[in-house]
Write a structure and sequence with these properties.
By secondary structure, the chain is mainly α. Among the domains are: about 10-20 and about 45-70 and about 85-175, no CATH class; about 335-375, no CATH class; about 400-440 and about 455-533, no CATH class. About 45% of the residues lie in helices and about 5% in strands. The chain contains 21 helices and nine strands. It has helices at about 10-15, 15-25, 50-55, 75-80, 90-95, 115-125, 135-145, 180-195, 200-215, 225-245, 250-265, 275-295, 305, 310-320, 335-350, 355-370, 375-390, 400-405, 410-415, 420-425, 460-480, and strands spanning about 30, 35, 45, 175, 400, 430, 435-440, 490-495, 500. A hairpin with a 5-residue loop joins β8 and β9 (about 500). α10 runs antiparallel to α11 (about 250-265) and α15 crosses α16. The longest helix has 21 residues, at about 275-295. It is globular, with a radius of gyration of 25 Å. The protein starts with 8 loop residues before the first helix and ends in a 31-residue tail after the last strand.
Length: about 525
């Protein structure tokens, strides 16, 4: 496969039947030292194109992420945080709700591509859409909105889209919405590239440009380990400049948030606790908002690239995955390093003929791995990064600033909905003059609690529904006065998707739904949660 296998969708789909035949063998129980092991096909992790293929999503374009958020909305933080990622069975049902999926039986792997007007009309009417007097462009746009990037069933369901995941032996199979190695690498590279163009002081801007030239320079792509090292160096650099009064605090906080995200994503499984889960959610949210406030419209890069799939995946989907997975376990950095070695060996020592590439590469690669004198590059890199990290000040609790709570309550609520579990009770947060503070810093309270959810017994979809139910409990307690939040009202949607507002019990509301009992500074008055939880 190293030298000869193509990677087009059609070629990869050719392996689907073989993969399905292997499932019964891989799911049999095994005994190891007296322990019965029950194997599950549980999760798929890969880069963007690999996730798109496995889930049946289009390659690139306006719906590059498998969650279905349009590319133009990736910088709309509230939209991204409220988006629900579909399960594989939900994606399958979305495909077979119409009629065009029948083209799969004819060997057409992209049944929704290059459609005529008549086909668009038939497909939309099969989905209950009124197409009267609609032009072809309108029909296509309507179908694109419904499918939000889905172009076929998930790869393992293309053989027979009528079969569910349970029918083919993958009831728990899920596809992660992020790949931390590539997402972090690209976000760091983009930030270092763009940041100098948003420094007002000319002399300080030149220092940031020098930092960029020293780290990124003319490189098209940097290694994941280098990206982490550059992020820690940038954090120390910005902290120094802030202490000197040469840059705003928001820039220093922005880079510090990114460093905290990297720390958690690369932390071992024993460090995954309730506190670190909450902290990753908070830091991703703070980083996203600070990036929008500090950078705004990029000057050096295009907005679509700067706020692209990597930014979206890291700030939106990484915390969701970390809720049940240790992200370090899905980071393929060591495997990527092996592929790099194989590529360099093939480029430098082979005659480029397919017959000899594989044998030559494997033989030389194995010889390198068995060399007793070979230096462990991973340990060396981790040591260098750790030394740089120790130069940074201790991490503090995450704080959602007071001005965000006052000016953008809807955006903050969209974040709090994702951490609803931690809002019930007063152990995890409090309201201070600075804003909403969460007790989850590594240097703060001790948190040895094992997370309630784990991928062995839960799924991303189950966790989404569980958190949604907890948020409804939060709303009920907010309305009854048993839980006080830093808002005058909360938004919720009824079963038909209509917007409603919820108010605490104190004070009447006017006819337009606004609370008239207290002034706007009510956000920060006596808002400690009660014990009646």
């Amino acid at each position: 496969m190293l030298g000869q296998s193509p990677s087009t969708d059609a070629d990869q789909l050719a392996y689907t039947k073989t993969r399905l035949e292997d499932f019964p063998c891989s799911q049999t129980s095994h005994s190891s030292s007296g322990i019965i092991l029950h194997n599950k096909i549980r999760v798929f992790s890969g880069d963007g194109p690999a996730r798109q293929f496995e889930s049946g999503q289009q390659r690139g374009g306006n719906y590059a992420c498998i969650c279905g958020v349009p590319a133009k909305e990736h910088q709309n933080i509230e939209c991204c945080l409220r988006q629900k990622q579909m399960s594989l069975d939900e994606r399958r049902l979305m495909v077979i709700s119409g009629t065009l999926w029948q083209k799969l039986k004819e060997g057409i792997i992209n049944p929704f591509a290059n459609l005529k007007k008549e086909e668009l009309v038939d497909e939309l009417e099969a989905r209950g859409v009124d197409t009267f007097l609609m032009k072809r462009a309108e029909l296509q746009e309507q179908l694109n909105t419904i499918l939000h990037g889905i172009q076929r069933p998930p790869a393992l369901m293309t053989e027979d889209p009528n079969l569910t995941g349970s029918d083919i032996g993958i009831p728990d199979y899920e596809i992660l919405g992020c790949e931390p190695l590539l997402d972090i690498t690209n976000v760091v590279q983009n930030l270092i590239t763009e940041l100098p163009h948003h420094i007002e002081d000319k002399n300080v801007r030149q220092e940031f440009e020098k930092f960029y030239n020293t780290t990124i320079g003319d490189k098209n792509q940097i290694k994941g380990s280098d990206a982490r090292l550059y992020a820690f160096k940038l954090s120390k650099f910005t902290e120094t400049k802030f202490q000197e009064g040469k840059i705003e605090k928001s820039i220093s906080d922005l880079v510090s948030s990114l460093v905290e995200i990297i720390r958690i994503c690369y932390s071992p499984s024993q460090m995954r606790t309730k506190g670190t889960i909450l902290r990753l959610y908070n830091q991703c949210f703070i980083f996203a908002v600070l990036l929008k406030n500090t950078i705004g419209m990029p000057k050096k890069m295009k907005s679509r690239k700067f706020y692209g799939s990597h930014f979206h995946s890291l700030t939106t989907h990484a915390p969701e995955a970390y809720r049940i997975f240790c992200l370090r376990s899905v980071i393929p950095e060591q495997k990527e390093r092996g592929f790099g070695d194989l590529r360099r060996i093939s480029e430098n020592t082979s005659n480029r003929q397919l017959t000899y590439i594989i044998d030559n590469a494997v033989m030389r690669f194995n010889a390198q791995q068995n060399d007793d004198y070979k230096e462990d590059a991973l340990l060396v890199q981790e040591s260098v990064i750790s030394q740089q990290a120790r130069l940074l000040p201790p991490a503090s609790n995450s704080i959602i600033p007071a001005d965000w709570l006052c000016a953008r309550p809807s955006l903050v609520q969209s974040h709090l909905e994702r951490v609803a579990y931690f809002l019930i009770g007063k152990d995890w947060w409090r309201i201070s003059d600075d804003g909403m503070e969460f007790f989850e810093s590594p240097s703060g309270k001790s948190d040895d609690n094992i997370p309630e959810a784990h991928f062995r017994s839960s799924s991303l979809l189950q966790e989404y529904n569980r958190v949604k139910d907890i948020w409804m409990t939060v709303i009920q307690k907010f309305q009854s006065g048993h839980l006080k939040l830093p808002f005058n009202r909360l938004k919720k949607f009824d079963k038909k998707g209509r917007l409603e507002f919820c108010y605490p019990p104190e004070g009447p509301t006017s006819t337009d739904g606004s609370n008239q009992s207290e002034p706007s500074d009510r956000h920060f008055v006596n808002l400690e949660p009660t014990n009646g939880i």
